[in-house]
Amino acid sequence: MTGANPILPADPIHYRIETKTRASVAVTVAACALIALLAALPAIAGRDVVEELIFVFYMLALAQCWNLLAGYTGLVSVGQQAFVGLGGYILFALTIVAGLNPLVAIVLAGIAFVLFVRRRRNREPRAGELSGSASAEPSSTSEGTSGEAW
Q1: What would the pLDDT profile of 23-45 be if each residue is shown by its tens digit?
Q2: Which residues contact 18 (CB under 8 A, 6 or more apart)?
Q3: What is the DSSP letter of 14?
Q4: What is the DSSP letter of 17?
Q5: CA gap 4, 118 in Å, rounded
Q6: Are 90 and 109 in contact (CB under 8 A)?
Q7: Domain ranges of the chain
Q8: Is the dihedral of CA 33, 34, 35, 39 positive or negative?
Q9: Contact 92, 112 (CB under 8 A)
Q10: Cβ atoms within 10 Å, residue 108
Q11: Cα dihedral 91/94/95/98 (nearest 10)
Q12: I need a labelling partner for 40 at 20 to 30 A (CA). Which of 3, 25, 31, 136 fits?
């Protein structure tokens, strides 16, 4: 042996990193064209198309947020869904059942939900909701000579 390392190959492998390929240029051009089309969409399309696309993009953003929170971090919280759900139910009840204008119903649904949450927060605890039955008053015991209960 002439001192060559039998583990390493004689010719090292050279890697080359390309940051600009034909595919990346094509995707960049297509993305820029799509952004330009979406920016010009209100001028060339009807209101219904724009509203539907806004809804789709809102739902896409909501799905991405949910995927980030629950999928990647493992955080599962249903608190914000309760706020949205109850507010939505109140809104539709005021609009459909009470026959109010939807814009007025949005404001009233928000106020009704705030009042509901405050009422639930300020209510007295029910029996069994406390972690223990300890009272704030010390009880008298026969132990100890100083008369202290603690």
Answers
A1: 999 999 999 999 999 999 999 99
A2: none
A3: P
A4: -
A5: 79
A6: yes
A7: 23-75, 78-122
A8: positive
A9: no
A10: 17
A11: 170
A12: 25
Q: Are 83 and 113 contacting, i.e. CB atoms less than 8 angstroms apart?
A: yes
- Tell me phi and psi for residue 74, to 5 degrees: 80, 10
Instruction: Find where tokens 């010009």 sit.
Output: 40
- What CA–CA distance (Å, rounded) separates 35 from 37? 5
Q: 42-87 pLDDT, tens per residue?
A: 999 999 999 999 999 999 998 898 888 787 887 777 777 777 788 8
pTM equals: 0.39
Alpha helices (H) along 45-101: 47-66, 79-92
CA distance 35 to 57: 13
DSSP for 102-145? HHHHHHHHHHHHHHHHHHHHHSPPPTT-SS----SSPPP-S--S
SS3 97: helix
